[in-house]
C-alpha cells in the first residue's frame, strides 16, 4: 500500500492499496463530524481524484475503528450567524452556502470512476448523503444508520432526499425513515436497497470486501467502466428513450477505442486483457 499524499488532506487520508485503486479514509476524530473545512476538503479530494487518469476505482471508508461518521458537526451551524441581517440577503447567502455544501458532497457521484462506500458502525445524517452519492455501498454487520436531520429541526438538504428514493425504489420506507429519524440496521438497509452487501465483522472486513470489488473493477476496460457510470447516471434522471439515444451517441465514439478489440481478444484467448490509463477524464456534470 502506498500513501497518496498528493491527494490527502488534513481530515482525509488517501492511499493506493492496489494498482489503480484508491482508499479514501475519513479521519477526523472523534466521530468524523463534518464542519465546513472537512466537507470542502472532501469535495476537493474527490475532484482531484477525478483528474488522475491512473485511478480506476475508489473505496470510501473511515479510518476510525468504531464508526463511519456521526454526521454534521453542530458547532459549524454557528457560522449562520455571520450572514447578513437582512432576511432576503441572508436567505440568498444561506442558499449559496447550502449549494456549495451539496456540490462538495456530490463529488463521488461526478467522479468518473466507481466509488464504493464501505460502512461500519454509526452512519448518521450527512453519512447517508455521502453514501447516496456513491455508486456501490457495502456495510459491516454492525452498521447503524439514521436520516437524522429531522431531529435537529431540518429537512435533509445535502442529497439524501433527492437520491435515496431513486436508490431504493421504496417511497414508503424512505419517508418513514426521513419523518422519524429512527435508527435502522444493516439488514434493513439491505432490504430497502441502500446497500448491496452485508459483510461479517467490522471496519477491516468491510473495507477488504470493498477493495476486492474495486480491484475487480480496476481490471476492466476503463473506457467501458467510465461509460457505464455515465450512462447509468443519465438513465436515473431521464426517460428510457432519452437514455437509449444518449448511449447510442456515447458508444458511437467509445466503440472506436482500442479497449474493445483488446477485451474481445482476451475473452477469446481466455486471458486477462490489459488496458492503458485514461487521458485526463471529464469532470463536467451531465
UniProtKB/TrEMBL annotation:
* Region: Disordered, residue numbers: 261-286
Q: In which pathway does it act?
A: Lipid metabolism; fatty acid beta-oxidation
* Entry keyword annotation includes Cell division: no
**GO CC, alphabetical:** mitochondrion
Q: Single Gene Ontology BP term? A: fatty acid metabolic process
- Which Pfam families does the annotation name? ECH_1 (PF00378)
- Sorted UniProt keywords: Fatty acid metabolism, Isomerase, Lipid metabolism
For molecular function, the Gene Ontology terms on record are: delta(3,5)-delta(2,4)-dienoyl-CoA isomerase activity
Name the source's superkingdom.
Eukaryota
Q: Which Gene3D superfamilies match?
A: 2-enoyl-CoA Hydratase, Chain A, domain 1, Lyase 2-enoyl-coa Hydratase, Chain A, domain 2
- Tell me the InterPro entries matching this sequence: ClpP/crotonase-like_dom_sf, Ech1-like, Enoyl-CoA_hydra/iso, Enoyl-CoA_hydra_C
CDD domains named among the record's database cross-references: crotonase-like (cd06558)
User: What protein family does this chain belong to?
Assistant: Belongs to the enoyl-CoA hydratase/isomerase family.
Q: Kindly provide the name given to this protein in its UniProt entry.
A: ClpP/crotonase
Q: Which organism is it from?
A: Phanerochaete sordida
What taxonomic ancestry is recorded?
Eukaryota, Fungi, Dikarya, Basidiomycota, Agaricomycotina
Amino acid at each position: 500500500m502506498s500513501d497518496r499524499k498528493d491527494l490527502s488532506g488534513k481530515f482525509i487520508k488517501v492511499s493506493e492499496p492496489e494498482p489503480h485503486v484508491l482508499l479514501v479514509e475519513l479521519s477526523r476524530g472523534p466521530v468524523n463530524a463534518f464542519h465546513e473545512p472537512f466537507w470542502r476538503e472532501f469535495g476537493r479530494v474527490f475532484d482531484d481524484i477525478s483528474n488522475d487518469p491512473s485511478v480506476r476505482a475508489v473505496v470510501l471508508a473511515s479510518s476510525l475503528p468504531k464508526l463511519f461518521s456521526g454526521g454534521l458537526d453542530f458547532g459549524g451551524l454557528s457560522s449562520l450567524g455571520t450572514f447578513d441581517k437582512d432576511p432576503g440577503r441572508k436567505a440568498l447567502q444561506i442558499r449559496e452556502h447550502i449549494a456549495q455544501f451539496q456540490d462538495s458532497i456530490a463529488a463521488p457521484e461526478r467522479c468518473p470512476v466507481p466509488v464504493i462506500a464501505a460502512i461500519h458502525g454509526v452512519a448518521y445524517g450527512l453519512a447517508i448523503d455521502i453514501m447516496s452519492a456513491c455508486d456501490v455501498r457495502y456495510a459491516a454487520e454492525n452498521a447503524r444508520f439514521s436520516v437524522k436531520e429531522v431531529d435537529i429541526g431540518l429537512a435533509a438538504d445535502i442529497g439524501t432526499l433527492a437520491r435515496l428514493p431513486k436508490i431504493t425504489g421504496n417511497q414508503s420506507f424512505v419517508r418513514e425513515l426521513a419523518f422519524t429519524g429512527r435508527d435502522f440496521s444493516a439488514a434493513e438497509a439491505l432490504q430497502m436497497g441502500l446497500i448491496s452487501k452485508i459483510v461479517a465483522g467490522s471496519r477491516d472486513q468491510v473495507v477488504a470486501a470493498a477493495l476486492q470489488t474495486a480491484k475487480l473493477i480496476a481490471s476492466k476496460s476503463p473506457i467501458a467502466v467510465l461509460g457505464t457510470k455515465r450512462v447509468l447516471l443519465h438513465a436515473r434522471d431521464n426517460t428510457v428513450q432519452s437514455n437509449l439515444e444518449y448511449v447510442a451517441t456515447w458508444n458511437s465514439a467509445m466503440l472506436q477505442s482500442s479497449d474493445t478489440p483488446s477485451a474481445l481478444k482476451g475473452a477469446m484467448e481466455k486471458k486477462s486483457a490489459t488496458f492503458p490509463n485514461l487521458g485526463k477524464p471529464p469532470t463536467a456534470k451531465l
